[in-house]
Structure formats: C-alpha cells, structure tokens
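Thread: iron/sulfur cluster complex, take 2
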Amino acid sequence: MPSFMTTVKSSVGKKFLMAITGLAMIIFLIEHLTGNFLLLQSDPVPYNKYAHFLLSFGWLLIVAELILVAFLVIHMISGISVFLKKRQARPVGYHVQGNAGGPSKKTFASTTMIYTGIIIFVFLAIHLKTFKFGPYYETTIDGVVMRDLYKLVSEVFRDPLYVGGYVVAMILLGFHLRHGFWSAFQSLGLYHPRYMPIIYGLGILIAIMLAVGFLGIPIWIYVREVVLKGAI
Amino acid sequence: MKKMTLHLRIWRQKDANTPGKLVSYTLNDVTPEMSFLEMLDVLNEHLVAKGEEPVEFDNDCREGICGMCSLVINGIPHGPEHATATCQLHMRHFKDGDTITIEPFRAKPFPVVKDLVVDRSAFDRILAAGGYISVNAGSAPDANSIPIPKEVADEAMDAAACIGCGACVAACPNASASLFVSAKISQLALLPQGQPERKRRALRMIEQMDREGFGDCSNHAECEAVCPKEISIAHIARMRREYMKAMLC
Ligand code: HEM
Ligand code: SF4
Ligand code: FES
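Output below.
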C-alpha cells in the first residue's frame, strides 16, 4: 500500500488533486460572479450590503478564504509539476508538429494551460491587492457603518488601462476553463461515452459565461462612470 | 503504372550517442499502391545500390497486428490516416510532389537506437510490473466455464486490441504513456481472471510508468486520435478509478 504522499505525487493522484481544486475554484467563481452582478446597478446599496453580509460571517469567511488559497496553491504546484515533467519527458522535440483531429481534444487552450494559469495567478495577486487589500472607504447604510466597496470598484474601473488588462485576463481565464472543465471530469475518472460530449460542451459554455460575465462588469462600469458621465 | 515523385526528409542518427539530423532524399519511382514501408524499402534499395547506409526503421508483421512499426509522419505518429498503423498506410494518401517528414517517436523513455528505431522496452517493464494474471499450471481450463456479460467482454476486447506500438506516447504533448497503460489495466480489471491482482496491478503499473519518466496526462486525447486500434481515453478514466480505488480501499 503506497503512502499518502506517494499517491499525491503519482501521475494519477496529482491530476486528481488538480481536478478537485480546479472544480472547487470554478464553483467559487460562479458564486463570485453572481454576487458581483449587483455592481451593474447604479445604486451602491445592494452591492455594499451583499459585501457586508459576506464579511459578517467573520471567522467562517476567513476559513473559507484560507481553504481557497490552499486549493489555489495545491492546484499551482501540481500544474507546475505537470509542466516540468512534460519537459523532461521529451528532451528532443519534433521538427513538424501535427494534430491528428478526430477524437483529439488537443486545442490552443489545452496546450497553453500553464501560461494561462500563470497569468491568472498574476491577475489574482493584482486583483486582491486592488480590492480586498485596497483603500478603505466607509459608508453608512440603514445606520450600519460598512466598507464602501462599490465606490472603490467604480473608481478603479475608470482607468481604461485597468479595464483593458481585466478583459485580457478574463479571456485567458475562459481559455483555461474551456479545457479545464471537461478535463477535470476526465481526471476524476468520470468518463461516460454518452455524457462526455455534454460535459465537453458545458465546459465551453461555462468558460464563455464566466469570461464574458467577469469582463462585462468592468466594461459596464467604465461606460457608466466615464462614457455616460462625460456625455451628460 | 503511374509513378509519384516524393521529397523525403528523414531523421538520420548513427547511434544513441551521436546527434542526428534530418536528411533530404528524392524518390521518383513510388507507386500509389505501395505501402509506406515498401516506399522506404525502395529508398533503401537505392541507398544500398549507391553504397550508402540504408535507413533503419522498425517493422515486423506488416499487417497491423504486431505493433513494431512506428514513425512520426508529418508530425503525426503512424501518419495521416485514422486507425491505421504505418505498415497499413498506403502511398495513395499522398500526392505527387509531396514533401514528407519522417521522425522517430520522441520520448525520453524511448531512446533512439539508430535512425528511426527507438527502444520501447520501457513498455515491457511496465507490463512486467503488473500486466499479467496468475493461473494454475496444468491442463487448459474449459472454455466458457466463467460466464462474462457480452458488454463487458466487448469492452475488455476493445482494450486488448492495443498492440503496444507506443504511438500514444509519441503523439502526447507530454509524452505520457497513459493510454497504453490504461488499456492493459482496463483489459484485465474487467475480466474475472484479472481480479486477484487487480489492486496491485493498478498501483504497480502506474508506479512503473512514472518511474520510467513518462509525462503526466493532461487529457489532450491526441493519443486516441493516433492510436491504430482506436483505444478510447475511457480506459484512462477507468485506470484512474482503479488507482484511486486501490489506494482508498
Ligand atoms: C481561478 C483560478 C483557476 C481555476 C478555476 C482553474 C481551473 C482549472 C481546472 C478545472 C483544470 C483542469 C484540471 C484537470 O485537468 O484535472 C485546470 C488545469 C490546469 N491549471 Fe488551473 N485553474 C485556476 C488557476 C490556475 C493557476 C493560478 C495556475 C498556475 C500555475 C493553473 C495551472 C493549471 C495547469 C497547468 C493546468 C493543466 C494541468 C494539466 O495539463 O494536466 N491554474 N485548472
Ligand atoms: S494504446 Fe494504441 S497507440 Fe498506444 S500502444 Fe496501444 S495500440 Fe499503440
Ligand atoms: S509492422 Fe506489425 S503492426 Fe505494423
């Protein structure tokens, strides 16, 4: 019986971890996007109340955040390990590279996972620094003093450069998930000839929805805060 | 008979320790009904007649069942035809005047021996680690004494079709051997005869696969697309279930 660490480091165990952590992060992204749609309203109250509601969980929220960070770290370590091992496994490459088509699922997305992943990480670092650990504005809603995140977000997305960077990062996230979603099911051993094409299609749909959703918000805020305000 | 002219770029390498390079040859007497290996035979006859070293390549049965033929043809292991081993590929799938690049299977665990020949004994070591069943010596058991449902037998037969050629490794962007290993694990895990060693087999074969230095599987499924026997990545999923089950219980 191999030890826990042997399993985790094996080619199968490693992908198992990647899949679990990847899917968990996708579930988080869906929740994150749904909540953030409140930013589309020109009334800051609902969004600030939602953010305050999340913060009111206190230590529970911190535990959840720590789990997410741990998942991200595990995901990254295994992803980087796949990349390093692949480079060792083929020291001499091909002069001509082909794609056999047919049942192949080798795509631009599937062959750039490590690069899209690293860019997502850089994005995440900037994202957290700007918002979570960014300037602290206060507002009072119904007599309750709370953080005015709505104001911060509206300020940040007035910078077209920032919005542009966001859009690029979210498109790359879309590519990551376009291969990542179905791949996670395959990594968990959940293959079924009937359902796999559905999961593959669902992956493309989720990738597009998350990318468009997350890049739509900053564009919308930019239009609201800069373009429309300038016109009036 | 119609003759084709082909421009070949072939990987020539003296031995494992000498760096190799692509060398160009032009052949004027190829016919569409020749197989790919017969085309190389013709090239070799010309080379020998000129007093040059013939191009070394692996082959044996030349009928698509032994798994000895290899070659990466224009970037695709076993060439452009789907579900076709190199020995079953015919020149009618190429056009007069085509340039064809022929390279050996590339993976660290498949070192080049000479020209297009690679050493695939890493596969033998993986099989030795667990790709067997234990049977009592003596007279052969009665046929059909253990009933096996048709769907299960079909699935095991699909996995057993793997001829161990290694094209899956050659095609994989990560040089992973997952398709080959999964076919072997799957075939035996499905049948009653494979049950006694079932857990040990999954653990040991995967451990050996990793030890040989093959890459991890990123689910590109390019392996299934080049496999001459159309082994499905469904077997890779089963291999993963087998491994996790063996680990957890
Ligand atoms: C929002 C954050 C992220 C999500 C939702 C996510 C999601 C996923 C999913 C679902 C998979 C498929 C797992 C599998 O094949 O079993 C995957 C694969 C991968 N992820 Fe991420 N990921 C994220 C961030 C990152 C980061 C920061 C990296 C940085 C290294 C990364 C690197 C990779 C790599 C290299 C793969 C491919 C693994 C392989 O080729 O086998 N990901 N990701
Ligand atoms: S799985 Fe297919 S490509 Fe891989 S060794 Fe077996 S027959 Fe060859
Ligand atoms: S030579 Fe036997 S399979 Fe091609």
